[in-house]
Structures are given as C-alpha cells and as structure tokens.
Specification:
It is built from ten helices and six strands, in the order ααααααααββββααββ.
Length: 253
C-alpha cells in the first residue's frame, strides 16, 4: 500500500484527505496494525490507489470477515460498472450520435416534436447500448425459434436482435418514441431491476437536455464513417464522439 501511495506521489496526509480518514489511520493501515477496517474505507482506498481490493486485503492483513465484506462490495461495484454505468454512458452517446447523423431524428428532437425521453426510447429500439447479454442456462429441453434447446445449454440473449424482430416491431420505427415494448432492459424475473431503468433514464435525459440547452449548435466534427465503435459482442458504444460548437460565455455576477 505504501509503494502504491508513493508511486502516485501522495503523502499520507494527502491520501487520507482523498479517502476521508485520518493520516494516523493511513499509517496504521500501511503498518498492518488495523485488522478490521470498514469495508467502505477499503473500497475508497482501492479506487484512489488503483489497486484491486483483494491485493489490498493481502497487503494489510484484513481478517476473513473484512475480506468477505469487501468481496461483496467489489462484486457490487463490478455489476454497477458493467451493467449500469457503461450502458448509461453508451445510451447517451448513441443518442447524441443519432442526433448528429440522422436529420429526421435531429429535427424531431431539436424541433420539439418529441421529448428527450421519447428520443432516448427510440434509441433503445434502434441502437440499444446492450446488444447481447451473457446468458441463461436452459432448465429443461425445449424448442425456441425452431431450434432444439437441451437442458443445460447456454443461451446468449440477443437483445438488439429481439428489438429488430419484424414480428415484434414490423415496418418502420415510426412509433418507437412511445412504444416501450423493447427488450433493452430485459424482461421478467431477470430483467433490469426497478428502479435502475428509471434512474438511467433520468441521467441520460438530463445529459441530452442540458447539452441541447447549452450548446444547441453542436455538430459532428468528423465524417460519420470515421466514428469508431468499441470492439464488443455485448455493448455498443463509441470510443469518442468528436464535435464542434460555439463556446458559451459565462456571465459574471
């Protein structure tokens, strides 16, 4: 832990301030004299130092109870990053991309013909951030889509493919803004749990509305074909979305 702190050029006092503990507590942790620190403290230390919690556990001699608690936090953090933070960020990015390259979508959104919520819902149909999901195991033999599924077979859930199924959503996406029958959040017992979809929409809607309010002349700075997607079978999101806009002048008070 001390080596990691020093590699970041942090004093014990600076690390303590970032984590929200006393300098003396940092010294005790580095000396291995605190056996059962609060799990939340270790989670913050892990984030600040960039060290997995498991390595910190070994370095500071945390007991089994603390290790179990931290393992639970680490698991929860992984779920939040993989199934919440990244999909929400991609949802915002995919919405802005569509607004910048699709004139009809842009006119509908920026012209006030549809709300930001409707535009975001349309993106969940057209360009959902979670394309596929690692999957489910069949609990019994069955037939699905003309395919024989055996008990124990692993199924990968194709959420984007389900949204594009012509039997589910035939023709154009004309009503996508108000039709919430998509599969982007899954469905049923293993769907995205309440209130996570609602929280994600609040975050995404706020981002889009604030951007349109503050920089309404935003334009794509590169050709649409030059945008690069992150290589992933599961998520759909861009590496970057370069744009041009007129800087806003802050009014002095």
């Amino acid at each position: 832990m001390r080596s990691a702190r020093e590699s970041l050029h942090l004093t014990q006092a600076e690390l303590a301030r970032r984590v929200g503990i006393s300098r003396a507590a940092v010294a005790e942790l580095e000396a291995g004299r605190i056996q059962q620190p609060r799990a939340a403290v270790f989670a913050r230390l892990s984030a600040v130092l960039g060290i997995p919690a498991a390595i910190l556990l070994a370095a500071t001699g945390v007991g089994e109870a603390g290790a179990a608690s931290l393992a639970g936090i680490e698991s929860d953090e992984l779920v939040v990053m993989a199934a919440a933070q990244q999909p929400t960020a991609n949802w915002i990015g995919n919405t802005l991309r569509l607004m910048l390259i699709d004139d009809q979508f842009s006119l509908t959104l920026q012209g006030g013909r549809s709300s930001a919520s409707q535009a975001l819902n349309e993106v969940l149909w057209k360009d959902t951030p979670t394309q596929n999901f690692i999957g489910r195991y069949a609990v019994q033999d069955c037939e699905l889509g003309g395919r024989r599924i055996r008990q124990g077979d692993l199924l990968v859930l194709g959420l984007a493919a389900a949204n594009a199924d012509p039997q589910v959503h035939p023709g154009s996406f004309a009503d996508s803004g108000i039709n919430r029958a998509h599969m982007s959040f899954g469905h049923g017992e293993h769907g995205c749990p309440f209130p996570a979809p609602e929280l994600a929409e609040v975050i995404a809607r706020t981002a889009v509305e604030v951007l349109l309010d503050r920089i309404p002349d935003v334009q794509l700075a590169v050709a649409p074909d030059d945008l690069q997607w992150r290589p992933s079978l599961w998520m759909r999101g861009l590496f970057a979305l370069p744009v041009r806009f007129t800087p806003v002048t802050r009014l002095s008070r």
